[in-house]
Amino acid sequence: MQGAERIHMKIDREDMLELTRRMTLARNCFDRAAGAYMDEDGYEEGSYNIHFLKLSAPERERNLKLAKTVPFSETNHQLKLYDFPGKGQGSADVYRLLLALNDCGLKNDALLETLYELTAGCFQPVKPYAVCLYHGIYDIPRKASDKERLWESEEVYHFLILCICGQEEAFTPGKPEWGILFPAFMNRSSDPAHIAVFEADPDHPHTGLLHGLLGISP
User: Residue 40, CB half-sphere, CA atoms under 13 Å: how many?
Assistant: First the structure.
């Protein structure tokens, strides 16, 4: 079995809680939000790409709630960790695409359009949906041996959160159905060899997205 076809290790719940503590209006870690509104046939009806702080306060709160759904979900059940070395069949291009989007902080519209097209080719919705993307920057504080935080930064973690949500009404995303956190956040550090995948209903996974988009077998 190839590495990208199995869950490699467990997610530490404390790692995810540490991230979500930076996903509030007062302590926001996101610098950019982008996304597209798609019809049920996978055709784009509109898109956006904006600095997070330029959103209105209600929009910031709504988007924080969407993004937070992924790391705040039930770890190792709704949110699972997979090997994602970018070498599996069909996954290498997506791996490079996600790395490039993370490196540019979602500022490349051409890369975003490619991701929307690839997603549409792997997703079979029953109603219009939204693809919502967030770029985050977390300045990981150093910890002393007694776990008390020190002022010095240990690492700067740049990451993407992607959510796919059915539209409650036109251009209004509902609750996320599926999503990813990439690179994975493991042992308080960036891990680009792994990806965390969110399923709102893990008993009915989105196999098209998991396998077709990421090259991972459920």
Answer: 4
Q: Which two tokens stand for residue 158?
A: 């740049």
93 close to 214: Cβ distance less than 8 angstroms: no
Could you list the mean pLDDT of each consecutive 10-residue stretch along the chain, which spans 218 residues? 52 96 95 98 97 97 98 97 72 90 98 96 95 97 63 83 96 97 96 96 95 86
Sequence ranges of the domains in the chain: 3-144+153-213
Q: Are 189 and 155 a contacting pair, CB within 8 Å?
A: yes
Rounded to a whole number of angstroms, the CA Rg of the chain reads 17
CB proximity list for 124: less than 8 A, separation 6 or greater: 208
- pTM, to two decimals: 0.91
- d(C-alpha 22, C-alpha 43), whole Å: 34
